[in-house]
Amino acid sequence: MCLAFPGRVITIDGDFAKVDFGEGTAREGINVSLVDVRPGQYVLVHAGYAIQVMDEKEAQKTLSYWREILAYEGVETPR
Amino acid sequence: MSVLDGYRDPHLAKRLKARIDRLSEAIGRDILIMHVCGSHEWTITHHGVRSLLPDTVEVRAGPGCPVCVTPAADIDAAVNLALEGKTILTYGDMSRAKGSKKSLAEAKTLGADVRIVYSVHDAVKIAKSRPDGEFMFFAVGFETTAPATAYEILHRPPSNLRLLTSYRYVPSAVEAVSRSPDLRVDAFINAGHASTITGMKAYKACFDECRKPMVFSGFEPLDVLISVAMILTQIREEEPKMENEYTRSVTWEGNVKAQETMSKAFDLREGYWRGVAMIPNSALDLKPEFSHLDARAHYGLSRSGESAEFVKNARCADVIIGKIDPPECPLYMKECTPASPLGPTMVSSEGTCKIWADHRIVSAMGCRL
Q1: B contact test, residue of A1, A64, A69 with most B CBs within 10 A
Q2: Pick from B1, B16, B193: CB nearest A51
Q3: B205 and B327 share a domain?
Q4: Do the Cβ atoms of B1 and A22 come within 8 Å?
Q5: Residue B271 belongs to what domain range?
Q6: How confident is the model at residue A74 (pLDDT cuts 50, 70, 90)?
Q7: pLDDT level of residue B364 (50, 70, 90 thresholds)
């Protein structure tokens, strides 16, 4: 029920937007009135409504942080 | 968003596993971590996250399935209205969950008009397209879903559409679980999308009271492993915290716009969680000024009760609250299967029994009994 998918906002018209979910899937009529979003940004979409503007940099930051602190975690690193 | 592929990186997963093993050895006792979201249960089961954890660390599903906790009395009311000739609109999972006798899907086979919608907006569109019809939207879900319905309520919905709301609020359920003497939960993985709406701040009072580690987690397998590592680090250092793993979506304040929209349409009141308990401040009920939209007021429906919740010998309630794993129920994969489910936890794609059954987990071996 709380499933939500990230997608990139292509165009906005009033409360509604066209959102690109990747792999050739774009949907019109996504309600973006619950967030402050600009075209080009990523939103998290739940049951037809964007519930958050996603922070791509934060996604990268979390991964880089853990890669760094686990770099010497006693498992051979292949790269 | 290709960056998400990194959250399935097997090399990083191995290093996280090594870190988790080391921490659990240093802690030297059993740790029970509860998550409260059906989507987390799916990620954990589907990606085999439990098989990566040491024997002393268990991650168990708590009350994270909205369809499962929707009271039987509400389902019965919707079924009765459907059989009386009203058109009922609801989500697919909700239509398959039985009340005390029938599900909406079964009412449909008897000729009732039950239609599956993807979102509340579809319900509004259907009602608008048929001004002569009488429609009822059976509105269930957590605070993730409620703001969308609030938006439609505040944007002049058609007068031939009424709502039977059964929205529940997760922070109050976490508080109830944290106070339970039977469960002995050591830490929580909090729901990433419900918390995206409420923000971490909604859990502050509960954390201050229970002082158990709480990590707000995303839904990729590495999100969960990172969250487990964060929790074990807190336990090892004897420093419980509210920590955010899902920084790409969850913030301290949450989605304020969605919170404001929600609070214009709903009030927090005491709510019944099917088979579990009445929980204070856990139901998002329509505000009195929207009583003209309220199906309960319009049709004189009775409020949720506590009777006839589950079939005999079924342990749905214990699965919902996280007291047991599905194979500990005597009906699991015997009388009760995804093809002929007897309880809501075997119906919903977020129900623990349905998720375990879909992944062919048929025995409790490997579970801590």
Answers
A1: A1
A2: B193
A3: no
A4: yes
A5: 67-169+256-299
A6: low
A7: low
